[in-house]
Amino acid sequence: MQEALRKMEEAARQRIVKAADSAELKEIKVQYLGKKGEITRILRGMGQLDPKERPVVGNIANQVKENLVQALRDREEILKDEARQAEYTRESLDVTLPGVPLRQGHPHPITLVMEEVKGIFMGMGFRVEDGPELETDYYNFAALNIPRDHPARDMQDSFYLTEDLLLRTHTSPVQARVMEKMVPELPIRVIVPGKVYRRDDDATHSFMFHQVEGLAVDQKISLSDLKGTLLSFARQMFGPGQKIRLRPSYFPFTEPSAEVDISCVMCKGRGCRVCGSTGWLEILGAGMVHPRVFRMSGYDPEAVTGFAFGMGVERVAMLKYGIDDLRMFYVNDLRMLRQFR
Amino acid sequence: MRVPLNWLREFIDAGHLSGPEIAEKLTRAGVEVEGISRLTPPLPGVVVAEVLSFARHPAADKLWVVRVATGSEEYQVVVGIQNYAVGDRVPLALPGAKLPGGEIERTEIRGVTSNGMLCSAEELGLDMAVEEDGILILEPDAALGEGIDQALELDEEILELGLTPNRADCLGLMGVAVEVGVLTGLSAHPPEAVPPQKEGGEAGRRVKVTIEDPDLCSRYTAMVVDGVRIAFSPPKFQIRLLKAGIRPINNVVDISNYVMWETGQPLHAFDFDRVEGRQIIVRRGRPGEKIKTLDKQVRLLNPDMLVIADRDNPVALAGIMGGYDSEITGDTKTVLVEAACFHPINNRRTARSLGLTSEASTRFEKGVDPAGTDFAARRTAYLLEKVAGGTLVPGRVDVYPGPMPPWTVSVNPQRVRDLVGLDLSPEKMTDIFTRLGFTVEEAGERLKVTIPSRRRDIEAEVDLVEEVARIYGYEHIETTFPVGVITQGDKPTEQKNLDKVREILLGAGLSEAITFSFMKDAAFNALRLPAGHPLRQAIPVKNPLSEEYGLLRTTLLGNLLNTLKYNLNRQQEGLYLFEVGKVFIPKALPLKEQPREIMTLGITVTGKRGDEHWQEPPTTAGFYWLKGVLEGVFASLNLKGFTWEPARVPFLHPTQGAEIRRGNTLVGVMGSLHPGVLDSFQIGQKVFCAELDLTTLIARTEPRGFKALPRYPAITRDLALIVPEALPAAAVEEAIRKAGGDLVENILLFDLYTGEQVAKGHKSLAYTITYRDYRETLRDERVNRVQAQILQSLAELGVSLRS
Ligand SMILES: [Zn+2]
């Protein structure tokens, strides 16, 4: 009987291993382990055995049963696995096919740069302010210490709408507006991004362009604070190794005044065509708020000091992205816009 | 201001400093050197030669065979003109020399070898005042064999100063020399001049000067030089003027310009014999009076203009241009030299109004040092004697009604330290002022600084602060951060909201354009705006760049459509553009006050949205896509309560346009562009557009609350409705909402059908309605009841359930 059980187990195993699918396995299970299966059939002859042998045979029968159950389970696993593998093969993708495009729009590079500039100065405690693009002569010039017939008016040829109203030639009028609004409060730290207009039109001048103006007023603000603030800006905007250089200059509404250069972003200061082999690029004008400007907006120049600066956004964008034609910004050629995110 | 370096070195012994070194020092001190140039490109192979002999060409009437020597060598050249004499020094271009007109070769001209070419000024690229077509005759002391670059100092470096308007003192080489002196510790010295003249004297007997308007002319110094011989100036003299950027005319005019360049003081030379009555009267123009200026134009004068007149007539526009009738001619024998100081603003106004600006007027309008007229006149007289063979008539006439008193400005050294952030002692500051030629007196805590008249720009304490900072050197200023109260960086609400709008638009696939804030009148017609339409009330620019930019824009659409067109012409077919910018709406025209500046969103979309893809092709622009974008914009601002009403907007398709309102306020329009507008812009495909007034939409941030998640399940029901064609969907939705009350959580239109399955004049709208009660589990019976109410009220609108 023991022999018969072992033989049966071997035969069953052979079939299990060869079974092609789970239906066949079910069939095998019924044939050997079912109520009317082979094992039951063999065990029916137990009665003829020596009672001492019965438990031994019983044990063996149980073991065979267990073995076959396990074999069936194993086979089932293998079949499942094989089936899945076949499925995988069927489902295989060409991962090199192009993905679905996001189809997002593209920001204008000027906006990108303005937002970056705003972000940097906001990080330094500056509040963003806004002002009208169509200004009065007073705010655009007089309040900035540029009276009528001042030669500095030649530096900024203007578009006039009436005798007294013009398109602002710089964002500086907002300086005066902010101070008038704030006086006598301190400190003031604002930046003013926006469009400005000058009656110039050639390869290096656009009659409309963008500026960011900055103004800081407090009890003791110095030219060295201006230098530190702008150095920090230059490093955040153009990279940690940036240097800046201040050169004395003249603006009617600041004194002392400075032109501010950054080390050339193209050649890292070694000298190249872009920087005219000087290693420096002029990016903004700045200075200490002129006492007359303070006085006109109601602050006492003996009690407060401040710095102001103004930069051309197009210039910064050109340097940052390596754009060499100013006109590109207003043509809005999609082939250009698509290069920005 | 162009500064030829050797010329500058005549006023300061800075021979050991190179051009770039001087340039660097000046730039660092705020006198920016924008570049270093030279007058002509190098002329290698052109040397100084002496004419040994000349004879007619044996085989050509108009040619000459000239023998010349360079000292060591003799050459034979064939020349087409004969304006030289034996012994004259001339420029000889040897074979291989490169001239502006090309390279010189050895040639044979009718059997005679020509070993080069004798050059005219023009052939050397020099715009000199010389006899036409003549060979340039050099000075007799030109060194034989020397290169012409050296002989004529054509290789001289020229510093190009980009002067700021406050530094009028550097509009003369002497002023620049003073500045270089301050920066180097060297001392500047003036050029030679005739000695100071007694007031009056013989000159005083010869000419009478009257200033009728001393407010417009603070000083008038006149000298008389007799016996001048008018000629062209010597070549080197002329070349200096060319380097300064001034065209040589004749020796007397050239000398006055030369001295202006040296001193910064404009000078004028009159033919004294043509000054009637031997009188100079500085007065205002008279109504109806005329003057013919040097450029032969007749100019109408008025009392706002200052003139120099003789007894009878104006002979010059003061400080701007001389008169034709008193100009120096070949016959001039006696010259009246004028060195005067005219009022900057009056001078500027007159120059502007006549459209006449000159080197002289630029200097007057920036301010000329009244203390400098006498020296400039004496220097001019010196050169008239030396170069033009004249003789000074002893004495001078100097009318100086109110001599400018010396002025002092006091400065607090602590103020300098505070403003600049420099730790400098008062002694150091005093040293800087002294180097600048200022005199310093201590006055308690403060320094009292006396300013020389050439530095009229120093008026207040802060000007002295600047002088200290720039001479000490900005590069020595530390870098620090403002200290004190901490301030919070922030953006105004409007800008934060604008950022949200931009983000939504970019995410939706729209790209940002920035166009000019101007438009042209013709755009109104292109947009089909009828006469009197509010958008036609645009503010005209008084001095536009061109008609193209003649008006301030009242709409962004014209510019956006031009941008669309530009890109369509460049094979870009799917174009999704937006612009955020201001339009300018006047309260009244003609403009009296600042207009309303309305932040406006303009959108134009056409074609496919984004790139093709093998699996998910892009969608095509459509009305409802664009409407969805705008709804997204409103949602991002957390704004509700918008209504869309069909509207006839001139530039929109008559049945595909909408006005968008929030409450009673019109916030924008959108729709399909009118085919007629497409025609005007020559666009051959459908375009959808929108224009929104953002100013009102972004003014506030609507608080965004959180609604607790529902605890009870919802029941959804699909409703297919047969709706009369003309009934807008919004009416159906409104009826559902009204009848359904709070129970209706959401209404979603998932299908719209018109066609055979639906009766004529009707459409089928299929909705999924979500019902929910937030307080308890909803039962079917309740939903059934509510839905019956809904159907009943829909029936009143002629809407029935689709079977
Ligand atoms: Zn460079």
Could you please describe the fold and organization of this structure?
The complex is a heterodimer of chains A (341) and B (803). Chain A is built from twelve helices and nine strands. Chain A is α+β, with helices and mostly antiparallel strands. Chain A has two domains: 2-91, no CATH class; 109-340, BirA Bifunctional Protein, domain 2, CATH 3.30.930. In chain A, the strands form two sheets. In chain A, strands 1-4-5-9-8-7-6 form a seven-stranded mixed sheet, with helices on both faces. In chain A, helix 1 (2-18) packs antiparallel against helix 2. The radius of gyration of chain A is 42 Å and the shape is rod-shaped. Chain A starts with a helix and ends with a helix. Chain B has 803 residues and is an alpha+beta fold. Chain B is 26% helix and 27% strand. In chain B, strands 27-30-31-35-34-33-32 form a seven-stranded mixed sheet, sandwiched between helices. Chain B has a five-stranded antiparallel sheet with strand order 5-4-3-6-11. In chain B, helix 6 crosses helix 7 (251-263). The longest helix of chain B is centred in the last third of the chain and has 17 residues, at 780-796. The chains are: A alpha+beta (341), B alpha+beta (803). Chains A and B meet through helix 5, strand 1, strand 2, strand 4 and strand 5 of A and helix 8, helix 11, helix 13, helix 14 and strand 27 of B. The complex binds zinc ion. The site of zinc ion has 8 residues of chain A, from loops.
Q: What sequence of helices (H) and strands (E) makes up the elements of chain A?
A: HHHHHEEHEHEEHEEEHEHHH
Low-confidence stretches of chain B: none
Helix content of chain A: 40-55%
Estimate the global geometry of chain B from the Cα principal axes.
elongated
- The CATH architecture assignment of the largest domain in chain A turns out to be 2-Layer Sandwich
